[in-house]
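Whether sequence alone determines local backbone shape is best considered at the level of individual chains. In the encoding step, the backbone of a single protein was reduced to a row of integers, each denoting a local shape. For completeness, the protein is quoted in full, as a sequence line and a line of structure tokens.
***
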Amino acid sequence: MTLPTAPNGASDRAAWLRAFHGACEQARTLVCFPHAGGTAGQYFSLSAALASDVRVLAVQYPGRQDRCAEPAFDDVAQLADEIARLLAEPGPASSPVLFGHSLGALVAFETAARLEHRYGAPPAGLIVSGMQAPYRRTSSRLSGDSEDAALEALLRLGGTDPAITGNPELWAMILPTLRSDLRAAAAYRPGSCPALLSCPITAWTGRDDELDHGDLQAWAEHTTAAFCTRDFAGGHFYLDGFPPLIVDAVRTAVTPMTGCIAQARTRTDRLSRVRRAASCG
């Protein structure tokens, strides 16, 4: 599937990347990627809480809310292609930190890989939440093969408001996009872009989530920089509503990552010079 792009660059960027609050010029940038069936608006409260020192850009996937006229995506790699293209365009002076939950963690990872290996612009850091490391994924915990399977999986993980699932008309509106997202998660395999990053990775999970600790720890294999994990009280959707503890954790994670920008760029520049010298040899 080919994702549509707007003819005007500014409107294209605005369609994909939502800024809910203003930020000072020196603010760090955090790009947030929603879970399957999620929307940019789920990061509104995080943006409000961090507005004083972090510029939050929330990704709005096609096929939902004000983008409902566009086809929903069913390929993580194609989605990451488009988001990386937009993030690689001239923007804030500092490199962004990418933050994704569940399916959003895979999209954020693939976007980070493209920024580094395709555009030579590695992100300052990557925060992944509620998702297996790419090479540990043997199957998706969510299946979009049937309406009942999709609903059952989401209810089990606690990610669906009963007000939605109990409303047949509303559920019918949301289900096609949700099933497309779940198919993308089930079909995802790493390898469309080099999978080793030079930025730090932080991996989070809820203590009551079904995610195996080894699957979370395996994210360390995808970076040559620092790596750490942390767990929080709650299940798969432990961060819903972004309570103060989670907001503080995000702020704490973002701050040292942005201090690694110069180091990451120096390492990238050094590798570029080595490759140029080798090609001229």
Observations:
- The chain is about 40% helix and 15% strand.
- Confidence is low (pLDDT under 50) at residues 4-8, 260-281.
- The first strand starts at residue 17 and ends at 18.
- The longest helix spans residues 168-187.
